[in-house]
Design brief:
The complex is a heterodimer of chains A (about 140) and B (about 650).
Chain A lengths: L11 E6 L3 H10 L8 E6 L7 H9 L4 E6 L10 H18 L7 E5 L5 H18 L4 H4 L3
Parallel strand pairs in A: 1-2, 1-3, 3-4
Helix pairs in contact in A: 1-4
Chain B lengths: L4 E6 L11 H9 L4 E7 L5 H14 L3 E6 L2 H14 L7 E5 L1 H5 L6 H20 L7 E4 L4 E4 L3 H12 L4 E4 L22 H14 L3 E4 L2 E9 L2 E8 L14 H5 L3 E3 L8 E3 L1 E2 L11 E2 L5 H5 L4 H5 L12 E7 L1 E4 L3 E3 L16 E3 H8 L19 E8 L14 H16 L4 E6 L9 H10 L3 E4 L2 E5 L11 E7 L4 E7 L1 E6 L1 E3 L3 H8 L26 E3 L9 H21 L1 E4 L4 E3 L9 H5 L5 E4 L4 E4 L9 H5 L5 E3 L4 H11 L9
Parallel strand pairs in B: 1-2, 1-3, 3-4, 6-7, 6-16, 7-8, 16-27, 18-25, 19-20, 19-25, 20-21
Antiparallel strand pairs in B: 5-28, 9-10, 10-15, 11-12, 13-14, 17-26, 22-23, 23-24, 29-32, 30-31
Helix pairs in contact in B: 1-5, 2-3, 5-18, 6-7, 6-15, 12-13
Classes of the chains: A alpha/beta (about 140), B alpha/beta (about 650).
Chain lengths: ~140, ~650
């Protein structure tokens, strides 16, 4: 039976850098901020570690959207990893557009270690937006 | 190697078990491939919890451990140490954060929280599966300590470390050390003069051979890691040569420019070349270039002409100083709340409504009134009202209690009575009296016995509109007496507003520079409120004093001593473990294209021109993984964060967990 939009619970994969967004997710927890459970966080050392292939892989495996969280531009723990990540995401979105794929399912956010409330807010936002977009068809369309 | 993984779920008391079904999640974990045992226990970090892991490693021959509990920043070290004790390479231990990422943030949906925990555990098992033993690497600890902020917290820490024989750099952004404590009059509950307590310690800082004092300086940049921080300090131009100046004071006596003194909250004037207060350390003036006539139009050079040591140097420029340190201590203190937005209190509009910091200046014998409590017209007040909780415990401003206001308000009451006579009427308008420290309740009792009037209620308005003859020429404090249940009008000569302590205006900058977390109230976040109150989330950086929450001088000094012990611990250990999860090259695959070499921010990779193979210098590599993400052939990978591992983790995480916890 097809899911109705109201029941649709999106599945989202989030790559969080260890030093900023990952620390912000800890802080959101410490302050008991409440947000929907749809994002599955995967902690990586730096947003610069996130190979665009991982983001594509997440969407092909059935994620409805994918996010990458890093330190604010200029604040990277590893000097410039987030700049590299920013370019990669921009490129990935370009490629998605040119292939006629929905680039709105790829997100990047800079959330610092002290921005627990912002992290929780963004978890709400990405879940809401993805819910509005509905289920992603990528996993089915591109199943090999 | 056949993998045997043990999964351990922590209840964390009720922090996890209260919001998700730990037993069900453990049952689920037991069904996962390679998992040979899945247990749950009330506190995994406790000795019995750790023993459970150790026993299983020995008896079941585990070669992988996944602890599902709090964030790895809290206890990864604990569990890895436990594994190492049982003979398992610590890098084979991994954590899944089911507290911060599930139970605490999905507290209203037990099923969803349990399912998310299951997903995190399943993905965690995959991460353990691909982990390999790594050799521990370590680096020597630089024995220098950098302290940012020269108030009582920074001074105390510096003295403790210096007296142990270690080198300290004390950086202060103002021209003198002393901080907020130097502005106060007397301390509670002993009514000691702050000068008596503080000035000798400031002098000790100046004379200690182990302390290098950098005043009028700020942190420009910080990098590195525990044991090896590299910082750049911006030493602002004083326009006075510190090596020549002898602090005689001829220059500021002669300077024709007068501006309001920041140190005295504008209650008196200072010159354009000035020291903030008479007992400043160092006693070397600063030229305020915004107001100095020479810098405005080049006209005056009065200070230069009178200086006997030729110390004035108008051409001096800001200097960058590089400091290497093993530990950093943040003691940047607090700001005080400006009550002008609370218009009904009339601060700034009605004369003789003063804030507590201004009143402290009045009580300080070195202050603008020479320690005398006086009204604007120079007369002594016959009655004073003290308003508690101005900006604290107030939903509109700061929700927290500033902790010291009740006590200093009582101190004011007693000092007023001491100075102006026992017949002076003092009113305390309070919400609750919070006198929790040693000797504090006794101090409160003494104040009540001395005849201080306590009115339980918040001030509604301070007005100059009078009704009765008694009120004529006075300030009328309109407030609700909540014990009587009626509105009252109290005519007084002066009102003191006990204003809140709030985070320094530059807290956000410091927090970003040092990557420190901040709690909801805006102050810095401690690593653990009970067990590590001076530690921060970043190893080797400690925060002390009011920069992570309001506290009194005694508590600040206690913390400062604690942080000094932590820095000394690091120094005496002499070495820190460093990241061993570096990048590595699969030489079979590497084509020597050199993309990794160009992308590495640390120049840790070189491509050998002869072999056409990339080589990682493990001593320099920080393990960020930028090269691994860039390598087009996937020859470059990060140890224990391999592509196969992450792809497998993604596969696991995208599986359907809905319905598993129902």
């Amino acid at each position: 039976m097809a899911e109705t939009k109201e029941q649709f619970e999106p599945k989202i994969i989030g790559f969080l850098c260890n030093w900023c967004t990952g620390a912000a997710s800890d802080l959101a927890g410490t302050t008991r901020a409440q947000y929907p459970p749809n994002v599955h966080p995967i902690r990586v050392m730096c947003s610069g570690t996130v190979d665009p292939v991982y983001m594509i892989k997440a969407l092909l495996s059935g994620a409805d959207s994918v996010m990458m969280g890093g330190c604010h531009p200029g604040d990277c723990h590893y000097v410039s990893g987030n700049y590299k990540a920013r370019r990669r995401v921009a490129m990935l979105k370009q490629i998605f557009k040119s292939l006629g794929l929905d680039d709105n399912r790829v997100w990047a956010r800079w959330i610092s270690a002290s921005e627990g409330p912002e992290f929780a807010k963004f978890m709400n936002q990405i879940t809401e937006e993805t819910r509005k977009q509905g289920p992603s068809s990528m996993a089915n369309d591109w199943a090999i | 190697m056949k993998r045997k993984i043990g999964v351990y779920l922590c209840h964390c008391g009720s922090n996890i078990a209260g919001y998700l079904d730990v037993a069900k999640a453990a049952d689920y974990a037991a069904t996962l491939p390679y998992v040979v045992v899945a247990r749950h226990y009330s506190f995994m970090c406790s000795d019995p919890g750790q023993d459970m892991i150790k026993k299983d490693i020995k008896e079941l021959g585990l070669n992988g451990v996944l602890v599902c509990s709090c964030s790895p920043t809290l206890h990864l070290r604990t569990f890895r140490a436990a594994c190492a004790e049982a003979g398992l390479n610590p890098h084979l231990c991994e954590m899944a954060t089911i507290r911060e990422l599930s139970s605490w943030v999905h507290s209203h949906d037990r099923v969803a929280a349990t399912e998310k925990a299951m997903a995190l555990i399943a993905a965690g098992v995959k991460r353990v599966l691909y982990r390999n033993p790594l050799e521990a690497k370590w680096a020597p600890v630089n024995p220098n300590t950098l302290i940012v902020g020269g108030g009582i917290a920074g001074i105390q820490t510096a003295l403790e470390i210096a007296s142990a024989g270690e080198k300290v750099y004390l950086v202060e952004k103002e021209p003198s050390i002393g901080g907020r404590m130097a502005q106060l009059g007397k301390t509670f509950p002993d009514l000691d003069s702050t000068e008596e307590l503080l000035i000798p310690r400031m002098e000790m800082v100046k004379t200690s051979p182990n302390i290098e004092l950098l005043t009028y300086s700020e942190i420009a940049e910080i990098g590195g890691y525990i044991g090896n921080f590299k910082t750049t300090i911006n030493k602002k131009a004083r326009c006075v040569d510190e090596t020549k100046c002898n602090g005689c004071g001829e220059c500021w006596a002669k300077c024709p420019v007068e501006v309001p003194s920041e140190f005295d909250y504008g209650m008196r004037k200072r010159k354009a070349i000035y020291i903030p207060f008479s007992k400043a350390v160092p006693k070397i003036p600063v030229i305020d270039r915004k107001n100095c006539k020479y810098f405005i139009d080049g006209s005056c050079k009065a200070c230069e002409s009178v200086c006997p040591t030729k110390a004035i140097d108008f051409k001096q420029e800001d200097k960058k100083i590089e400091i290497d340190a093993g530990a950093c201590i943040i003691s940047t203190g607090y700001d005080t709340f400006d009550p002008s937005p609370i218009t009904q209190l009339g601060y700034g509009k009605i004369d003789n409504v003063v804030t507590s910091p201004e009143f402290e200046r009045m009580l300080n014998p070195d202050g603008p009134t020479g320690g005398k409590i006086v009204m604007k017209n120079g007369a002594t007040p016959k009655s004073v009202a003290i308003a508690h909780c101005v900006g604290s415990r107030d939903q509109n401003y700061h929700q927290y209690c500033s902790r010291v206001c009740c006590m200093y308000s009582l101190k004011y009451a007693r000092l007023i009575k001491q100075q102006l006579g026992a017949d002076t009427n003092v009113y305390q308008m309070y919400i609750d009296m919070r006198c929790f420290g040693k000797g504090h309740e006794e101090f409160y009792k003494q104040a009540s016995e001395e005849g201080v009037n306590f009115i339980r209620g918040k001030i509604g308005q301070i007005s100059t509109e009078t009704i009765t003859d008694e009120e004529k020429g006075k300030l009328v404090v309109v407030c609700e007496d909540s014990l009587l249940g009626s509105m009252i009008r109290v005519p007084v000569d002066m009102v003191v507003l006990s204003v809140a302590m709030k985070p320094r205006a530059d807290t956000a900058d410091i927090s970003r520079a040092f990557l420190l977390g901040r709690s909801a109230d805006g102050f810095f976040l401690e690593r653990h409120p009970k067990l590590d109150p001076v530690g921060t989330m970043l190893d080797g950086i400690f925060a002390v004093g009011c920069c992570h929450g309001p506290k009194d001088i005694g508590d600040t000094v206690a913390q400062a001593t604690g942080a000094a012990a932590r820095a000394l611990e690091l120094i005496s250990k002499g070495r820190v473990d460093i990241e061993s999860a570096t990048a590595f090259v699969d030489e079979e695959v590497c084509a020597g294209c050199g993309v990794c070499e160009s992308i590495c921010a640390y120049s840790a990779i070189e491509v050998n021109p002869k072999t056409k193979l990339a080589k990682v210098n493990e001593a320099i590599c920080k393990g960020c993984g930028a090269c691994a993400a860039t390598c087009p052939s996937k020859a470059m990978q990060l140890k224990n964060f391999t592509h196969k591992q992450l792809i497998d983790v993604i596969d696991e995480a995208t599986k359907d967990f809905a319905g598993l916890a129902k």
